[in-house]
Design goal:
Number of strands: 10
Number of helices: 23
Radius of gyration: 37 Å
Structural class: alpha/beta
Helix content: 55-70%
CATH superfamily of the largest domain: ABC transporter type 1, transmembrane domain
Strand content: 5-15%
Number of domains: 2
Distance between the termini: 66 Å
Largest sheet: 6 strands, mixed
Shape: elongated
């Protein structure tokens, strides 16, 4: 129930729909009971000719309420029909039909209003999850499978709607239907109703035993669904490599193994769940059978109950079965929903380690320096940066070079605050970046990565990602600076051409130039280039390098370089090895020092 309460918090904005649902459910439950009780006068007209009441009955108190209502109804029917029994029958049938009509109208109205609540909660949970997914740090997704996260925001949230939120439909209607029905049953025969209550706890305990293991089985189903969605996501992302290495059968084996486990878990879960309905129905019919025996004895032998009341009573008793079955199904739904809610709430309640300070500052501009003071950082156990110090003055280009794993990209991740330092501080204009709002910090920075991350959208929208209200002229100007305008004009629809998933309709160089155009349009004072040319051919590299040089003019730039020929004009080149600075200076100074940098330059010259 703890998860159920947490999910119900999302229903608050839709509580008015909930109140209307409750109101119409109360009316539905009342008319559901009355519609069966109204059968008694109809049966009297048909079968009990001697029961005509010609004098209006006198109310003698609650104790005799059943006899009073029965006699009053018989009196009114007799007054209307006179000696024509068919007129009385038509009147009573009309009453029964009207009661059933109202019952179904109220049922529809109750379901109509609960639909808005259910779908509203579904929408808000998904929106909240998406917001949380984008807010959580990049480190969170190095541990989680993307497919599992997708499963949580799709099938798990849907399971919550089918299980938890379907309970909202039943939480008022079914118990009230049972309550009103039992009250009328008590009115007809207290003795018979007390006899029924002996069997209800027995039936309830049998049904509850069936559902105890549902949560665990449901949890297995949902986890396995996340597993095979992850395989699908990885397959689509790496299809070229899978085909190139003829690994289709290997991935199929992994996928089919996952779907086989899903098949087994689903069968176990659904078979246990499907057992509920026939078990509940059989136990209900068993109770009806016992009632027929005990009630029949009261009619035929004891003469303590008239036949028409007994037939209506049996209708009322059967009327309890449907809501009772619904409640037992709902209890299974809650157990299944618990597993889904746990997985959804695990994401929603995950603490974001990269949080903002309570009164975080809004920084609008960059004035003097970026400073890394005694920074140490580790992704897991080993430090990838150790007591690292670096100052980047405004307007300077600082290049970071070194072997793979030396900590170059880590510095870019820390300055943009994708990760937080373990020790030390990073400051912009003397302000610790932890004291700035994340939005204002990232507004100061543009990022161009080695992998050109583009989206399945038009060229225009990809360039305008960092500036929503950019004009046509601004977009074209940014594309020209990035040497992208010419090739964009040659595309089928120019700037309105859809570039496909991850920009796969474009070449590597074209994708990278679009990434640069995006950064240019944002026009930030600080630019971070993470090996922006390392994956390109010579011609593309020349065009991209030219675009980068145009972009870096009059800006502060941190360049992470793989090809050393691209950073010779940097103000400062920092050579890293195992997270520590081994050399620092301009290109000419480092060559003259005849150290690590010169070795790297010589090795690259030989490779080319």
């Amino acid at each position: 129930m703890e998860y159920f309460k947490k999910i119900l918090q999302f229903a608050k904005p839709y509580r008015n729909y909930g109140y209307l649902n409750i109101f119409f459910n109360v009316l539905y439950a009342l008319f559901s009971a009355l519609s069966f009780a109204a059968l008694i006068p109809m049966l009297d007209v048909l079968f009990d000719k001697g029961k005509k009441v010609t004098i209006e009955p006198i109310y003698k108190g609650v104790r005799y309420i059943k006899d009073y209502l029965q006699d009053y109804m018989s009196f009114r029917v007799n007054q209307y029909s006179g000696d024509d029994d068919m007129k009385g029958l038509v009147l009573v049938i009309g009453l029964v039909l009207v009661l059933f009509l109202f019952k179904n109208v109220f049922n529809y109205m109750a379901m109509y209003f609960i639909t808005f609540l259910r779908n509203g909660v579904l929408k808000d949970i998904r929106n909240k999850m998406y917001q949380k997914i984008t807010d959580l740090p990049i480190s969170y997704y190095s541990e989680k499978r993307k497919g599992d996260v997708i499963a949580r925001i799709t099938s798990d949230v849907l399971e919550i709607q089918h299980s938890f939120l379907s309970v909202l439909e039943l939480i008022v209607r079914e118990p009230l239907t049972i309550l009103f029905t039992i009250l009328i049953m008590f009115g007809i025969s207290a003795k018979l109703t007390l006899f029924v209550f002996i069997f209800i706890p027995v039936a309830g305990s049998i049904i509850s035993r069936i559902g105890k293991s549902l949560k665990k089985q449901s949890d297995n189903v949902q986890k396995e669904q996340g597993q095979f969605l992850s395989v699908v996501e990885e397959t689509l992302g790496g299809l070229r490599v899978i085909k190139a290495f003829n690994s289709e059968s290997r991935f199929y084996k992994v996928f089919s193994g996952s779907t086989k486990r899903f098949f087994d878990f689903s069968n176990s879960l659904l078979n246990r769940q499907n057992l509920a309905s026939p078990t509940g129905e059989f136990l209900g019919i068993l109770v009806i059978g016992v009632l027929l025996w005990f009630g029949g004895k009261m009619v035929l032998i004891d003469k303590t109950l008239d036949a028409s009341s007994f037939i209506a009573y049996m209708g009322l008793a059967y009327n309890i079965l449907t809501p009772a079955k619904s409640i037992s199904k709902a209890s299974y739904g809650v157990k299944k929903g618990n597993a889904a809610a746990e997985r959804v709430l695990e994401i929603l309640e995950t603490e974001n380690p990269i949080s903002e300070a309570p009164n975080a500052l809004q920084k609008e501009s960059f004035e003097t320096t970026i400073t890394l003071n005694d920074v140490s950082f580790k992704y897991e156990d080993e430090y990838v940066l150790k007591s690292f110090d670096l100052t980047v003055p405004k307007g300077h280009t600082v290049a970071l070079v070194g072997q793979s794993g030396s900590g170059k990209s880590t510095i870019a991740n820390l300055v943009t605050r994708f990760y937080d330092v373990n020790k030390g501080t990073i400051e912009i204009d003397g302000s610790n970046i932890k004291q700035l709002t994340k939005k204002s910090l990232r507004d100061l920075m543009g990022l161009v990565t080695q992998d050109s991350i583009l989206f399945n959208d038009t060229v225009r929208n990809n360039i305008a990602l960092g500036k929503e209200n950019a004009t046509e002229e601004e977009i074209i100007e940014a594309a020209k600076i990035a040497n992208a305008h010419d090739f964009i004009q040659e595309l089928p629809q120019g700037y309105d051409t859809n570039i496909g998933d991850s920009g796969n309709k474009l070449s590597g160089g074209q994708k990278q130039r679009l990434s640069i155009a995006r950064a240019v349009l944002k026009n930030p004072p600080i630019m971070i280039l993470d090996e922006a040319t390392s994956a390109l051919d010579t011609e593309s590299e020349r065009l991209v390098q030219d675009a980068l040089e145009k972009m870096m003019r009059n800006r502060t730039s941190i360049v992470i370089a793989h090809r050393l020929s691209t950073i010779q004009n940097a103000n400062t080149i920092v050579v890293l090895k195992k997270g520590e600075i081994v050399e620092q200076g301009s290109h000419s100074e480092l060559l003259a020092a005849n150290g690590t940098y010169k070795k790297l330059v010589t090795m690259q010259s030989l490779d080319s």
